[in-house]
Specification:
Structural class: alpha/beta
Family: Belongs to the 3-oxoacid CoA-transferase subunit A family.
Helix content: 10-25%
GO molecular function: CoA-transferase activity
Shape: globular
CATH superfamily: Glutaconate Coenzyme A-transferase
Strand content: 25-35%
Radius of gyration: 18 Å
Keywords: Transferase
CATH topology: Glutaconate Coenzyme A-transferase
InterPro entries: 3-oxoacid_CoA-transf_A, CoA_trans_fam_I, CoA_transf_BS, NagB/RpiA_transferase-like
CATH class: Alpha Beta
Order of helices and strands: HEHEHEHEHEEEEEHEE
Largest sheet: 8 strands, mixed
Number of domains: 1
Distance between the termini: 57 Å
Organism: Flavobacterium restrictum
Length: 233
């Protein structure tokens, strides 16, 4: 069995260069590859195109890359929690492609499955449809969307083994499974890394064939994006 373990985040991110396209898992601040993002900030990798459901917050997640102006283009579904993102977008400093959330997920899944394009009804008749091919199926109009073509996919899982098999926990699963195997190279950072053969096969969410590199992260903050409380009775 191939051992895909690398000893550090630095080794895991080898080969990521300026100008590349990256898929990054997570939803809000849940299930994001914290260690990998921090290393990209440290390396000052720039001119990046980042595909992620959202752009983190001002001082965490992908927001850290935005602060350093390392992202050239953001392809996202929801970006309402990041003031710096808004500033850069409105000033023209940042290219932005906003797409429906389901379309974002399916463009990842299509890339994972080797499907070059697909038709979806989402966005037809709106600004999303501008410049895209449309076609009628069974009396309903659909848009042609293309699978992402990314250099690296960087995802986060709860537990993994040295063969690259992954288990996610709760809603931290989100976009991570459909981004696994959706790029030329998939890097998985995990909270707990065990030897191959020790995970229950029935509990594995993503098989190791979709992962090329895996490493154990550290010092996870797991911040809460919006803390909502109420007064005690």
């Amino acid at each position: 069995m191939i051992n895909k373990k690398v000893v550090s985040v630095q080794e895991a991110l080898q080969g990521i260069e300026n100008g590349m396209t990256l898929l990054l898992g997570g939803f809000g601040l849940c299930g994001i590859p914290e260690n990998a993002i921090a290393e990209l900030v440290r390396k000052e990798t720039n001119n990046l195109t980042c595909v992620s459901n959202n752009a983190g917050v001002d001082n965490f997640g992908l927001g850290l890359l935005l602060q350093k102006k390392q992202i050239k283009k953001m392809i996202s579904s929801y970006v309402g929690e990041n003031a710096e993102f808004e500033r850069q977008m409105l000033s023209g400093e940042l290219e932005v492609d906003l797409i429906p959330q389901g379309t974002l997920a399916e463009r990842c899944r299509a890339a994972q499955a080797g499907i070059p394009a697909f038709f979806t009804p989402a966005g037809y008749g709106t600004e999303v449809a501008q410049g895209k091919e449309s076609r009628e199926f069974n009396g309903k109009m659909y848009l042609l969307e293309y699978a992402f073509q990314a250099d690296f996919s960087i995802i986060k899982a709860w537990k993994g083994d040295t063969a690259g098999n992954l288990i996610f926990k709760g809603t931290a699963r989100n976009f991570n499974p459909c981004m696994a195997g959706a790029a030329k190279i998939t890097i998985a950072e995990v909270e707990e890394l065990v030897e191959a053969g020790t995970l229950d096969p029935n509990q594995i969410h993503i098989p190791g064939i979709f992962v090329q590199r895996i490493f154990q992260g550290e010092k996870y903050e797991k911040r809460i994006e919006q803390r909502t409380t109420r007064k005690r009775d």
